[in-house]
Amino acid sequence: MGIMIIDGKQIAQQFKEELRQQVTELSAQYGRKPCLDVIIVGENPASMSYVRSKIKATEYCGFDGELIQLPETTSQEELLRVIQERNNNDAVDGLLVQLPLPKHIDSQRVIETISPEKDVDGFHPTNVARLWLNQPTIVPCTPLGIMALLEQVGTPLEGRRAVVVGRSNIVGKPIAKLLLDKNCTVTIAHSRTADLAAVCREADILVVAVGRPHFITADMVKPGATVIDVGINRLPDGTLAGDVDYQSVAPIAGAITPVPGGVGPMTIAMLMRNTVNCFMHRNQ
Ligand code: GUN
């Protein structure tokens, strides 16, 4: 069994090319382009870098949009006002606020203020509920990107064991639901899981989103498993590391995503797709 390195960068590029083509046609049909507005509060370097990548992708896909940079000291009230203004602006199809937010701002309150129809992150409680009720909704971008990678690679899912390490609202919980919908038997493991290594070794599909560099080592992986590494950790020497110890795990995995160049680019491609879907929905 040879290792397969899943090239998320290339697969994301294919998605973006298809979207760009679709956007050309849709713009002609509807007389305007999809529009994504991105709000960032403060100057967290990682957040700034993610937001720049998102804006670059919107330009590539031929969207309109605006980057709204607010100072770290912005009050919650002011941020909510900016969101409301974009909610009420008919030219805006998608709106996201980059997380994390400064400590004086209640993130949940912010998420709940974004119009569910423009919530391209899929974080609004209405969209979360609709996901768990199997109703049409906007699904969070990273889980969508992971499912697209698994489909591209052809990993069988039906009846297989999936272990998700991490239980965040952004990744762990929604990816568990999407894998369940594909008839995986899903376990959500986390920092308090007893004998985590044994639980992970059961996984045919192992998805890791814990935000700790090199957390998953070779002894925690079943030979031949598909390993999806969601972590993006900046090491003291400035390099990026995933949550999976790639050096030791790659030789035993059946397929594995690298960091960088695995899940990250797919998140952005799916953000573009969610924006086009919001645009189409709002044009109906
Ligand atoms: N911070 C980390 N991941 C995300 C994401 O998917 N969306 C937003 N808005 N912020 C994030």
Question: Key features?
Answer:
284 residues; Rossmann fold; 2 domains; six-stranded parallel sheet; three-stranded parallel sheet; globular; binds guanine
Please provide a written account of the structure:
The protein is an alpha/beta fold. The protein is 42% helix and 15% strand. The chain contains 10 helices and 11 strands. The chain has a 6-stranded parallel sheet. Strands 3-2-4 form a 3-stranded parallel sheet, sandwiched between helices. Helix 2 (45-61) crosses helix 10, helix 6 (141-153) crosses helix 7 (172-181) and helix 6 packs across helix 10 (263-282). Bound molecules: guanine. Guanine is lined by residues 96-99, 121, 141-142, 170. Residues 96-99, 121, 141-142, 170 line the site of guanine.
Task: State the gist of this model.
The protein is of the alpha/beta class and 284 residues long. It has ten helices and eleven strands.
Helices and strands, with pairings:
Layout: E1 4-5, H1 8-30, E2 35-41, H2 45-61, E3 64-70, H3 76-87, E4 94-97, H4 107-113, H5 125-132, H6 141-153, E5 161-165, H7 172-181, E6 185-189, H8 196-201, E7 205-208, E8 226-229, E9 233-234, E10 240-241, H9 246-249, E11 255-256, H10 263-282
Helix pairs in contact: 1-10, 2-10, 6-7, 6-10
This protein binds guanine.
Query: What profile does the largest beta sheet have?
Result: 6 strands, parallel
**Which H/E pattern describes the elements?**
EHEHEHEHHHEHEHEEEEHEH
Q: How are strands sequenced across the largest beta sheet?
A: 1-11-8-7-5-6
Q: How far apart are the termini?
A: 48 Å
Query: Treating each run of at least 4 consecutive H or I residues as one helix, how many helices?
Result: 10
Q: What's the pLDDT, averaged over the residues?
A: 98
Shape: globular
